[in-house]
Structure formats: C-alpha cells, structure tokens
Write a structure and sequence with these properties.
The chain is α/β, with parallel strands linked by helices and 411 residues long. The protein is built from 14 helices and 15 strands. The strands form four sheets. The chain has a six-stranded mixed sheet with strand order 9-11-10-13-14-15, with helices on both faces. It has a five-stranded mixed sheet with strand order 4-5-7-6-12, with helices on both faces. β2, α2 (34-45) and β3 (52-55) form a beta-alpha-beta unit.
Length: 411
C-alpha cells in the first residue's frame, strides 16, 4: 500500500530520509536545497522522526560531522548544493577513505562566477573522483526511490562507501509531481535498521584508521581497496534495483533505454533534462527518424558494460552534457567514448553542451544535435572533435558575439 501525493523534489528527498529512519541529520542551508533540511527539522521537532538535527556552521563542518557520526554506527543523511557542496569538498575524500555509508543529496546548481541559481552538473561532476557512489535522478519519484536504494547499497558490507544522490535545482527541487510514498513497514523490509559494519575490521585485528602518515605501499592498498569496493557497487546496485522493482514496481536500472529497440541513433543524457530529451525523441520519431535516448542513472561506478550493450551497433550518438570541463568539453562525452573506444565498429559520437546554468534545451536544439550526428555519420560533414554549444535562433547573435570574443576576435 502506498500513498500517492504531490511532492516537490526537496520534499521527496526529506520523505526518503524519514522512511529510512535516519539517526542524524547535520545541515547547513543553501539554495535550492534548504527546503529539505527545513522539512526534516520540523518533523524532528514534532516527533515524527526520531533523529538528531544540528545546524552546523558550514558545509565543511556538516560533512565532517556526518562522517564522524556514521563511523560510530549512526545512519546519517545530509544535503547540499553548488558552492556549499564545493566548500565541503575536502571532507568528501575523507568520508570515502573512512568507508562510512553516509547518504548525501546534492541539489545541483551552477557554479560561480558569474552567479546563477539555476542548475547544471558541474558541482556534482567535479566530485566524480571522490569515491562516492553517484546516482542521478530525472523525476521527483526517482529522488525518493534513489535515496532509499543508496542507503541499502552504501551499507552493504561489500561496499561501505558514501553515496551522492543528485537532482536538478528548481527543475526538480521546487517542482511538484505525483509521488508514490511507500509505507514504513514496506521500507523496513527493504531497508532494515542499520547494523554498523566496518571495512577495516578483520578476523584477527582491527586496522588503524587514524594513522597520520602511511607509507606508499599501504596507502596504495587502501586506495585500491576503495576502488574495488566501488566496482562491487555495480553488482550490488543491480541486485538492489531488482529487489526494489519486485517490491515497489519501479525500475531504477543503472541506465534507462527509451525507444532504443530499433534505433539507429541515440541521444545520451543524465538528469531532469532527459525528460525534455524523451519528448524530443518522440516528436522526431513522428517524423520518421530512428532515434532513441539512453539515460544514465548511475555515474559512479560507471556502467560501461551496460552502455556498450545499449549503444554498440548504432550509427551515431549525440551526447548532451549539462556541464563543461573548460579546455576539454563535456564530462559525460569523455567517459562514454572511453568506454566505447575498443569496439571494432564504433558509432560516430559527437559532443554537445546544453543546459548550462539551467538554460532550456529546445526541440530545435535536440533536432540540430541529431541532424549534425547523422550528417557526420553519412560523411556529409567532417567529424567535429570540439564540443558544440547548443543555442536557439533567438540566442544566436549574442552567443556568436561572445564566442568570437572568447576566441580573441573583436566585435
């Protein structure tokens, strides 16, 4: 039995933490995630959630407290966004090194400067090497589901790593959608109370975690063990997703394939803008274009084999990144093409940058990306290695002028 109700993305995240029966919530406000900790604070005050809530003096302190509490055996949830997420950055690497199963929601917001409150993925993707499991959400329902799954995965004794569940600010954080909220007893069957485990306890003796300095061999061992645990998460994620589907009827596989059955070309995306992509694909299908969309939910560990199986045999791929690594291009494009590199017959892959700072991606821009990919695959255009910025006709003049200035040309 589930409760169907209208929730914002932030409320869905709070509901997931409540259903997970978390013990400790350290928080610090920042737009657009503040609603999450406000909701949890009200529930804790009213006795609806038996947890400790503490407003910290910064995001750095917040994440430090989260890791320390988790190391003592508490189930811990916290959340941040954008500049605040970056302020906690030093401690992200400590939490993964401590092997504590904290779950953190990041509500993506583009980074300064210049400043904006709208979303892109540069904040969360900057932490892809921090050792956190990283799950990306398209819908409000996926936020609730993914946080529950993240606790289950992180706390698995084969993993014992923290998780980030990411969703887009404003597009999801303050958007209400109908959400199935499962009953507490159903969640408790899926996610029983946390029994503290520790990655550094062996049958013979505990391994010291607080050593000030390790020699290179020991350090390499610990880092490689972290890497192996992250790789294990591919298997564990698949197991947990299957159990979640059986229990709650929703499929949260590492990747989602939309209209891919007979597709010759694919658009690849992550996050809430994939909903726009699906609409664009549907309209292009009506024009007779054999295109599908592949969306990544799981970014770390990277589901390379699933992507190879989904995309091999296609003629071309348009990767749309809602981020930019200055001097290189889109992060997702680089990671995807490295996974496909050793295929004997590789599809043509083009990199497109769209949605920076929350900028909309129009139907015309999706069609431009696909047509550019088709023309390149058919040899009508030369393969373009640099990322291609998506902009509408109304943006055309200002964007062209800014690009010209960026390349050292005068107006």
């Amino acid at each position: 039995m589930t409760l169907k109700t209208l929730l914002t993305g932030n409320e869905a995240a709070a509901w997931a933490a409540r259903l997970a029966d978390v013990d400790y919530v350290p928080g610090y406000p920042i737009t657009p995630q503040t609603e999450i900790i406000e909701t949890l604070a009200h529930w804790i005050r009213d006795g609806k959630l038996k947890a400790k809530f503490v407003t910290m003096d910064s995001e750095h302190s917040m994440v430090t407290a989260a890791g320390a509490a988790s190391a003592t055996g508490a189930r811990v949830f916290t959340t941040s966004s954008s500049q605040g997420f970056l302020y906690s950055y030093e401690m992200l690497f400590n939490l993964s090194g401590w092997r504590v199963p904290v779950v953190m929601a990041n509500v993506s917001r583009a980074l300064s400067a210049p400043i904006t409150l709208e979303p892109d993925h540069n904040d969360v993707l900057s932490a892809r090497d921090a050792g956190f499991i990283q799950i990306h959400c398209e819908t409000v329902q996926e936020i609730l589901d993914s946080i529950l799954m993240a606790f289950r995965i992180s706390e698995d004794e084969r993993i014992l790593l923290p998780s980030i569940v990411n969703f887009d600010g404003f597009y999801l954080s303050f958007t209400r959608e109908i959400v199935d909220v499962p009953e507490e007893n159903e969640v408790r069957e899926f996610l029983p109370p946390y029994v503290p485990k520790h990655a550094f306890i062996s049958s013979r003796q505990p391994m010291v975690q607080g050593a000030a300095v390790l020699n290179a061999s020991l350090y390499s061992y610990f880092r490689y063990q972290l890497h192996l645990a992250a790789e294990n998460a591919l298997t564990v994620y698949g197991e947990v997703a299957q159990e979640y589907r059986r229990k709650f009827g929703r499929d949260l596989s590492p990747i989602e394939k939309f209209m891919m059955r007979d597709a010759e070309y694919a658009i690849v995306m992550i996050g809430s803008f994939a909903t726009k992509g699906k609409k664009a694909v549907t309209l292009m299908r009506e024009k007779g274009m054999k295109v599908g969309l592949t969306k990544l939910r799981l970014l770390r560990p990277f589901p390379a084999q699933e992507l190879i199986e989904a995309l091999s045999g296609l003629k071309g791929i348009a990767v749309i990144d809602q981020n930019i690594s200055p001097g290189k291009g889109g992060v997702l494009f680089s990671e995807l093409t490295s996974a496909l590199y050793n295929l004997k017959q590789k599809p043509v892959a083009l990199s497109f940058i769209g949605g920076l700072g929350g900028k909309d991606i129009s139907q015309a821009e999706f069609e431009f990306a696909l047509n550019k990919t088709i023309s390149t695959e058919e040899g009508k255009q030369t393969l373009q290695m640099a990322p291609i910025l998506l902009f509408t006709q109304t943006d055309d003049e200002i964007v062209r002028r800014m690009l010209a200035i960026g390349h050292g040309e005068t107006e």
